[in-house]
Design the sequence.
């Protein structure tokens, strides 16, 4: 909500009729303005002509179903256009000569006996070209100004000056923006990094980096940019080629990643892919599946009692032909060994035996993870055709130098790694929106306004660009997170995983907005690590909410920020004071306080309603985990349902209505599940709506997203069978303001059935 100065708030509370509005209409380079009001006033030594015949109404709304705010408007501002009304002529003459169109306006509220310093700004925006003139008046339409955020991002592009050797496909294409942790998986136990380098493959995601130099003149490498901003972490082991629905890691000796410059470099023809083994039914015993499940925290214990023997077996799966075959190896992640250690000097070892060829491959015990080449097992014809499937191997504890000891071995994971030379065709075809030009962007009043662009969709066409893929950690917090005496639990240089601050980073880093243009206090209320309200949205600790995504195609910055806001259950909008504000929608049970209490005595024309049946969703799942090579979401959460809502009781709709929500911004299962349960919480039941007029301007400080309750509501006036009490909390979804009143529409957000 807007912050009314105490003197103004007291005046409006005690003397409702003393409120007045005045407006500043800027012209030219916006260094000057014309002041108007509904009567002549001198305010702060500036004369405001009393030419406003009708203020119309300032209106702003939001749809809580999809978290979409409208454009705030001041429609039908009617100004006297009588002869000799201003500057010796009609206002329309002045309007034309000064050229007010597409310039700024600010709308203000004051009150009798309240000094200028205690007035407040109610709205800010631009004067549109929708002007209607008659002999007696001129009518204007004013709207909020989103030009500063309707800028195409990513703002950095591949160009011939900075990247003279870039592929022609990539000239003019965006350098991506990368956010969050998409590096080594952290929920599958400890991933080995040596002996058997599983860390090449067990990563959260593969993000695209655009190739900016096909062969660097300075280093004899191919260069690719991951971002134009500093990255938190890049790894030379996690640079990938994508082909035939598989990612292959570049030989790390031929690659490097530099987080400070967001640059990947690589060369050579040596690439590797990892594949999980299949079961061999004859030896599928014990916890066999734990060795091939991709989880290093689970294991199978192999046991030999007395004489050496076969302990387990594996089958090689079907593997697509990825290029020219080089080598194939088994990778083992071993846990603890029990019993008498094999005597390696006497020939004691583990043994991998192929079937039916019965070739032996020895693993001399050294207590660590191991990679074992089995290339010799396959014929030239098999290698040429990549015909490996069906070949089986047995893992044996073969202590030939011992005396039939009892021995055990914990095996956490077994897989196969294939080394090959790919075609190294880095081109990716994807659909991009075909767009046209409209509106204006850039800094307000700057020289760039006439040439800046935004785009709107008129179709889609295929585009081709050259990319390499990588895993790592994206953008870091800038100094802004510590500035302005902020206390949100984050520090400059830390990884950004919180979606609230991803939005703020886009606004600051891509659009160069400052703290005077961002209501950073609202961002800290929603996102701070201690009690940020998005924690209630996801029903998780804020630190457990993990967003990670790459924006590699052009999009309006405002559209991207709105998408992110919706994905984390937030309303993002321009406040009346001209700053960008964010408000999290919490779960029903988490609302315990409100921004304002409205007395029933100031309400008029009360119209109760209820959200439509078609808005109910009582079975929800979320698709997440974007594969950027395929442009497809790979994983879907388990469905969550509300049986009461589906049922035939008083709170049921006697129907199942399903929602499958796409979320391209997270790779994390816990975050996706939190999103699905939040959606169910919000949508499983129809919610009460109240629409009413307020006969006082003292509530003109309220905005969309603010929460309210009511006092002195009569118990005899029930809304759809429910008594309205102080514990019933509503969120404002529309507010229409006039100088001495307002109209509000609000939706229930507290517990259902109270």
Sequence:
């Amino acid at each position: 909500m807007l912050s009314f100065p105490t003197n103004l708030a007291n005046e409006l509370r005690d003397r409702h009729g003393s409120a007045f509005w005045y407006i500043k209409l800027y012209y030219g380079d916006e260094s000057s303005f014309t002041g108007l009001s509904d009567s002549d006033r001198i305010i702060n030594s500036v004369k405001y002509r009393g030419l406003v015949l009708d203020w119309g109404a300032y209106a702003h709304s939001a749809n809580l179903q999809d978290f979409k705010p409208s454009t705030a408007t001041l429609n039908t501002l009617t100004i006297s256009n009588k002869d000799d009304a201003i500057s010796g002529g009609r206002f329309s003459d002045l309007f034309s000569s000064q050229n007010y169109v597409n310039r700024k306006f600010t709308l203000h509220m004051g009150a009798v006996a309240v000094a200028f310093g205690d007035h407040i700004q109610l709205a800010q925006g631009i004067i549109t070209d929708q002007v209607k003139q008659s002999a007696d008046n001129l009518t204007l339409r004013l709207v909020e100004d989103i030009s500063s955020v309707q800028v195409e991002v990513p703002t950095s592009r591949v160009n011939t000056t900075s990247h003279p050797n870039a592929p022609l496909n990539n000239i003019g294409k965006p350098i991506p923006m990368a956010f969050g942790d998409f590096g080594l998986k952290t929920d599958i136990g400890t991933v080995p990094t040596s002996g058997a380098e599983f860390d090449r493959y067990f990563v959260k995601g593969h993000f695209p980096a655009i190739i900016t130099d096909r062969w660097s003149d300075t280093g004899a490498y191919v260069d690719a940019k991951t971002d134009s901003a500093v990255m938190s972490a890049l790894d030379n082991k996690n640079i990938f080629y994508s082909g035939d629905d598989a990612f292959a890691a570049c030989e790390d000796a031929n690659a490097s990643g530099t987080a400070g410059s967001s640059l990947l470099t690589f060369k050579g023809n040596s690439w590797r892919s990892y594949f999980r083994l299949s079961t061999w039914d004859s030896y599928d015993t014990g916890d066999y599946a734990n060795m091939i499940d991709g989880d290093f925290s689970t294991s199978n214990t192999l046991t030999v009692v007395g004489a050496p023997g076969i302990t387990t077996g594996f089958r090689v799966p079907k593997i697509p032909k990825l290029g020219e075959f080089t080598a194939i190896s088994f990778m083992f992640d071993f846990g603890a060994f029990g019993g008498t250690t094999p005597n390696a000097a006497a020939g004691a070892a583990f043994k991998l035996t192929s079937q039916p060829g019965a070739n032996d491959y020895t693993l001399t015990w050294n207590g660590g993870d191991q990679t074992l080449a089995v290339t010799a097992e396959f014929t030239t014809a098999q290698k040429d055709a990549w015909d490996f499937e069906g070949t089986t191997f047995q893992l044996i504890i073969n202590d030939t130098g011992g005396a039939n000891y009892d021995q055990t071995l914990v095996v956490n994971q077994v897989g196969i790694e294939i080394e090959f030379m790919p075609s190294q065709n880095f081109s990716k075809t994807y659909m991009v929106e075909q767009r046209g030009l409209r509106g204006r962007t850039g800094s307000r009043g700057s020289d760039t306004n006439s040439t800046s662009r935004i785009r709107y969709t008129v179709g889609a066409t295929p585009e081709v660009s050259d990319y390499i893929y990588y895993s790592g950690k994206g953008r870091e917090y800038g100094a802004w997170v510590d500035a302005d005496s902020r206390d949100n639990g984050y520090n400059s240089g830390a990884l950004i995983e919180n979606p609230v601050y991803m939005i703020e980073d886009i606004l600051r880093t891509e659009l160069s907005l400052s703290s005077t243009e961002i209501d950073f206090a609202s961002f800290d209320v929603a996102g701070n690590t201690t009690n940020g309200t998005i924690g209630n949205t996801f029903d998780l600790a804020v630190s457990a909410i993990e967003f990670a995504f790459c924006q590699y195609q052009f999009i309006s910055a405002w559209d991207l920020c709105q998408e992110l806001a919706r994905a984390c259950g937030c309303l993002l909008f321009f406040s009346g004071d001209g700053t960008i504000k964010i408000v999290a929608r919490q779960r029903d049970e988490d609302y315990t306080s409100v921004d304002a209490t409205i007395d029933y005595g100031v309400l008029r024309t009360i119209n109760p309603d209820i959200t439509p049946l078609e808005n109910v969703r009582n079975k929800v799942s979320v698709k997440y985990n974007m594969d950027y090579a395929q442009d497809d979401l790979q994983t879907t959460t388990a469905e969550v349902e509300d049986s009461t809502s589906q049922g035939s009781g008083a709170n049921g709709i006697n129907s199942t209505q399903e929602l499958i929500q796409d979320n391209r911004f997270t790779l994390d299962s816990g975050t996706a599940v939190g999103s699905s349960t939040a959606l169910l919480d919000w949508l499983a039941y129809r919610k009460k709506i109240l629409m009413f007029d307020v006969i006082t301007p003292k509530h003109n400080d309220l905005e969309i997203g603010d929460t309210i309750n009511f006092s002195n509501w009569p118990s005899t006036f029930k809304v759809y069978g429910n008594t309205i009490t102080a514990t019933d909390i509503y969120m404002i979804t529309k507010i229409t303001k006039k100088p001495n009143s307002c109209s509000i529409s609000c939706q229930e957000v507290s517990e259902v059935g109270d």
